[in-house]
Amino acid sequence: MKRELSLAHLTVISLPPPEMIRVASRTGYQSVGLRLIRVTPQSPGYPLMDDAVMLRETRAAMSETGIRVHDIEFVKLEPDLNVQSLDRFCATGAELGASRLIVAPYDPDLSRMADRFAEICALSASYGLGVVLEFFPWTVVPNLAEALALRKQAGSPENGGILVDALHFFRSGSSFSDLQGLNSAVLPFLHLCDGPAHGADDLEGRLREARAERLAPGEGALPLHSLITAMPAEIPVSLEVPLERMTAERGAEAGALHVSRAATRCFEVMEFSSC
Description:
Elements: E1 5-8, H1 17-26, E2 31-35, H2 52-65, E3 68-77, H3 87-96, E4 100-105, H4 110-125, E5 130-134, H5 144-153, E6 160-165, H6 166-171, E7 190-192, H7 203-212, H8 224-230, E8 237-239, H9 244-250, H10 252-269
Pfam family, one: AP_endonuc_2
Domain Xylose isomerase-like TIM barrel: 22-256
Protein name: TIM barrel protein
């Protein structure tokens, strides 16, 4: 089963986009997801929309390697978000050839957040981009069912979908039944990783696992085979597997290679057993 493998920026978050793209090329990926907006004060973002030099270097790396940009991130849907302020972010994504941008639910007012999601979808559509809402167990949209409900409340925009992340899917207790009947317009790609069967009980531990120490596909106990087969066939797979300890000891490129090799093995054995 041949899948497009995309390297999510969180896996190699210490690398600026030009270097990340070259690492992706050397370690078995076909595309990358770029974090242009930082998520936390401790984790970097690379605002190419405000850095003409790095943007030019990023485009040069893409041309040199043939690596594509699959998605850009990370927009928090917060109460004070001004959607029009994202215009240059979207324009830069379009210039890089990205397919989608990722947004996350951080507004306690679900009605307002649904409106913002619809507005971002409209803005993105003007640049030929799709939008995916990623749910997180610690937010007001903690699972797949709630994410689908918010999408419906926003009017089910044609270019608006949901991003399923394997770790968040299982940690949130989301149901496979909620995936039934959904096509690639709603679920356009998958964030893949692995982890222990059970996560931490406290918020600090859950955030630590999600943002710093996941497991490569096939190296944990999550039923990834069941998730992959329940998703639309042949959608791209983005490998989001932060490995802080391995990166500190062996470097970001070693981590990226470890993850791509593990994912390739996982897909190779899917027809015969669970990975």
